[in-house]
Design goal:
With 223 residues, this protein is mainly α. Helix content is 83%, strand content 0%. The protein has one domain. The N terminus is likely disordered.
């Protein structure tokens, strides 16, 4: 993160939030984190006046929104992959138990379901099946797992991509507005500078003429 942050960034943000309201944060998002983003952008963009302060505020909001949507993409894929993995692990557990019960019944064909040996074998089977379930559930994800998750989530992801693109374009528009504001400001400063210089030159010329006239009068009196 940038080490040098303008001291006036936080007061500026507090003023903007008071005037325009708090940024549209969700319950799982912290204002302190948004403040840090604003401060970094403020340091990078270096606004020159209130109008540019407003632009930076909206730029920070769009930046926040864009990366929130990117988080949503990952959340959707992770959720679907997790659900698929849980379903696959559960199917494996059921299959293991079904096959194991068949083998147990073949091993104890003449005992009742309440027989101690039968109950012990069933308990061991379920313990092994549950361990296998946990192993499958916690196994490492592969690219193919996420490709499948992507295929099942395409419609939702496309909607999010559209919103990300919209936020990105809005950020670009704000940057253009900041550049335009700087251009207008620089023109005003140049005009002001020209007027100051012209005034200084005129004042110097007037003073010089007055001095020459004064010297000429003094010389005439001396003669």
């Amino acid at each position: 993160m940038t080490e040098i942050i303008p001291n006036n960034a936080e007061p500026v943000l507090n003023k903007l939030m008071k005037l325009f309201g708090y940024p549209p944060l969700l319950r799982n998002e912290r204002l302190e984190d948004f403040k840090e983003v604003f401060q970094e952008l403020y340091a990078a963009l270096g606004p020159d006046d209130f109008l540019m302060d407003v632009h930076v505020y909206h730029f920070a909001i769009e930046t926040w929104r864009m990366y929130r949507l990117m988080r949503y993409e990952a959340a959707i894929l992770n959720k679907h992959e997790s659900n698929q993995r849980a379903a696959w692990a559960e199917d494996g557990r059921k299959e293991t138990i079904a096959q194991g019960m068949k083998e147990i019944r073949e091993k104890f064909p003449r005992v009742s379901d309440a027989h101690p040996q039968y109950l012990s074998a069933v308990a061991e089977l379920k313990t092994n099946a549950n361990a296998e379930y946990r192993d499958n559930l916690n196994s490492a994800s592969t690219d193919l797992d996420y490709i499948e998750a992507f295929e099942h989530s395409t419609a939702r992801l496309e909607r999010i991509e559209t919103r990300i693109s919209r936020a990105f374009k809005q950020r670009e528009n704000i940057l253009r507005q900041i550049a335009l504001s700087r251009l207008v400001l620089s023109k005003k400063l140049r005009k002001m500078s020209d007027r100051i210089i012209e005034g200084a030159v005129l004042e110097a010329a007037t003073a010089s003429n007055a001095q020459l006239i004064s010297q000429a009068g003094f010389d005439g009196q001396a003669k």
